[in-house]
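For anyone still unconvinced, we reproduce a single protein record, the chain in one-letter code, the fold tokenised, and leave readers to judge:
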Amino acid sequence: MSIFVIAEIGINHNGDIDIAKKLIDLAVGAGCDAVKFQKRTVNKVYAKEYLDSPRESPWGSTQRAQKEGLELGQDDYEQIHSHCASRKIEWFASAWDVSSQIFLRQFDLKHNKIASAMLIQEELLREVSEEKRHTFISTGMSNLSDISRVTKIFRMHNCPFELMHCVSVYPMDPADANLNCINLLRRTYHCDVGYSGHESGLAISYAAAALGITSLERHITLDRAMYGSDQAASVSPAGLYELVGAVRKIEKAMGNGLKTITEQEKINALKLRSHL
């Protein structure tokens, strides 16, 4: 089975639908299987006191102005839906509240995503699992007890899912990658396991691919110098092309694990063993 490569646009569009479309086009060109966004109802995800607190951004001087500036609206998502259909690439989004999950239903998407931050939000987990769409579940900021609770909910509702090993630091220190957790999750929960990476560079994603992941998610950007907290941990356009190309080579290189003599080896053996 081929690794399902997800280009995480997230909020790297900075509230600009034209940037979102350029990122979709980048993902298509690089050969990704899907793009992913993030959807929030700002007043429900954040407390009023937090939203009223100061923060300088291109949209104003409060946290509210920044959060609302990053959100896409109905017309934007209709354009995303149409653009992805015309470019023949899947899209989906991680909802950060129940209202956002209900909003996304109008597009009848094939996949759902549980962000690491939402792993303990049981109302949202139930809402998503009841849809019975294949769901990617990131496991950052969680322990096995948290993950067991989530998998129990999804199995209770017969909702297909896969876990994604994740370390929620932006960017992540390579020393914290702990990729052996991929095998731990697979053994413990008897399910497919992917990798959602927030590191700088590509080497750790290559290693994850070699460990038999079923999905790979990386944030993408047009330019890591752009405004935004996720840009530094994102993959540049050239890096995305390199990433997808290398992952496809790694898939082929892993083979079937059976020890056989290739046809070319048989020819070489006739030459190299002719004196024996």
